[in-house]
TrEMBL record:
Cited PROSITE patterns: SUBTILASE, SUBTILASE_SER
Listed InterPro entries: Peptidase_S8/S53_dom, Peptidase_S8/S53_dom_sf, Peptidase_S8_Ser-AS, Peptidase_S8_subtilisin-like
GO biological process: proteolysis
Peptidase S8/S53 domain boundaries: 4-153
Any GO MF annotation of the entry: serine-type endopeptidase activity
Keywords: Hydrolase, Protease, Serine protease
Taxonomic superkingdom: Bacteria
Family classification: Belongs to the peptidase S8 family.
Name assigned to this protein: Peptidase S8/S53 domain-containing protein
């Protein structure tokens, strides 16, 4: 467990450009420090591969589903996707203390980050690999979504907290 108490980092950003070596080194260092990394898969749609940093093996990549439990049109897909979570038409904060609807895998990734934080609050001391494995083990397979687009399936926080890791 990291000395400063940080156990999870949410990476709700991405780029389809070649990643810098500095970013890759930072990702590896965080993972080596025992920090779970959760990232957005990207918003490049049907033809789009998973963006950096979501494509790194150290990052748990999250794609987005819509309200009908279908992959959101904008969501990137590929073998790097680990889970899916709601990411279309969600309420978020906006400048000036307002709220707005937003969509994107950057909206989906925080669901997984929050679920992992809840798990660590009731099961302190779990290593990132165990948290990651339990997130995947308790996910719900969505037969209407191709395997390469959903990874292990839909995040199920209820199962995550109910079942033993």
């Amino acid at each position: 467990m990291p000395a400063q108490g940080c156990e999870i980092v949410n990476l709700s950003f991405g780029t389809d450009r070649r990643a810098s070596e500095e970013l890759a080194e930072a990702i590896r260092a965080l993972e080596k420090a025992g920090i779970l990394l959760v990232g957005a898969a990207g918003n490049d749609g049907r033809g789009g591969a998973v963006d950096t940093p979501g494509k790194y093996p150290e990052v748990l990549a999250v794609a987005a589903i819509n309200r009908r439990d279908r992959l959101a049109r904008f969501s990137s897909r590929g073998p790097e996707v680990d889970l899916v979570a709601p990411g279309a038409g969600l309420f978020s904060l906006a400048p000036g203390g307002r709220f707005c609807r937003m969509s994107g895998t950057s909206m989906a990734a925080p669901h997984v980050t929050a679920a992992a934080a809840m798990l660590l609050s009731v099961r302190p001391g779990l290593y990132p690999a165990a948290v990651r494995a339990h997130l995947k083990h308790t996910a719900e397979w969505l037969p209407q979504i191709h395997a390469s687009a959903q990874g292990a399936g839909l995040l199920r926080a209820d199962r995550l907290l109910r079942e033993e890791p």
